[in-house]
Amino acid sequence: MAAKSKVAPLADRVVVRPLEETEQMRGGLYIPDTAKEKPQQGEVVATGPGRTEDGKRVPLEVKVGDKILYGKYSGTEVTIDAEQVLILRESDILAVIN
User: What pTM was computed for the model?
Assistant: First the structure.
């Protein structure tokens, strides 16, 4: 995705591809997309250069390919090359999944 469109986030922002919830049936009932909770896991597909602090560049702690957890209502959803992605600040990332 990032390689095709050449998305280059600024400062301490990252572009995340949300990981879809695999379970669509609960108790035999179909859960429509509109009723599902927003995913809180994703894969980093592009990163910015880092934030500037005291005139020096501080690199990001996450890298492309990392699986992460982020806040439920964090970031901004955008569509790039017909793919829904999330752009958020590194501070909105709660954890890296190993």
Answer: 0.77
